[in-house]
Amino acid sequence: MVTLLTDIFTLLHQPVWANSNMSIAITLLIGAIVGFLSGLLGKGGSAITTPALQIFAGVNPFIALASPLPAALPTTISASIAYSKEKLINKKVVIGSVLLGIPATFLGSFFSDLLGGNMLMILTAIFVLTLGLSFFFIHTHDEVAAANNVPLWKIAIVAVSVGFLSGLLANSGGVLFGPLFIRFFKLPTKEALANSLLVAAGLAIPGTIAHWYLGHINWMIVLVLSISSIPSSYFGARVALRLRNLVLERIFGIMLVVFGTFDLWYSITH
Prior knowledge:
Mean pLDDT: 79
Strand content: under 5%
Number of domains: 1
Low-confidence stretches: 7-15, 142-147
Number of helices: 12
Oligomer: single chain
Shape: globular
Structural class: mainly alpha
Distance between the termini: 38 Å
């Protein structure tokens, strides 16, 4: 703990960007936009924050990949408060996914150093783009059994596979858990997104610890992102609760396709 506090103090007093004032303002804006989308779409936000930090704020690929993780924790909790008031949180899905996903996340995190930062960016973009497109080619609906009927083997498959990818790509997993909860668990859209947020928050913790140990996190970026993303994520969740499920799914798909395509293009051409 002492070492962590020392690292944070040191990083807060080191220049992070070449043009600090402009880059801090850009990062605040990124945090506000991503926070809103996180609450709206039930995701941690790393899949969007990572390319945005690299492209618009000029952040190193590894730092851009890992720094959004600790910022995702307070952001997702803030949005989850809005969802919990509507009784959309299912303990079986959340607890099972977090407990099974934590060791897989740790494992994936330590494999991330075996790949270059640019390769991780490309993999992230491909996953985001693929999931976005799936919302236009696979029909979803709201019929589903109560979440208590989701078998543990399904929870295990999703938690372990997404947990490993989350650690590998320094992503809290919300971008993957949300669609899988809808399709594989057959949860109603809003319930799936609400539970995805809490699972993403839980898996952000081991990912943060592992990537901090690997030296991939800049705490100044974490602080700036959190300042604007915490309130905006709560607002995004409140907006989501007022939208129809089909509208939410379409918005989810469009945003993932846009960001995934742009990030893939940028990673390949730079």
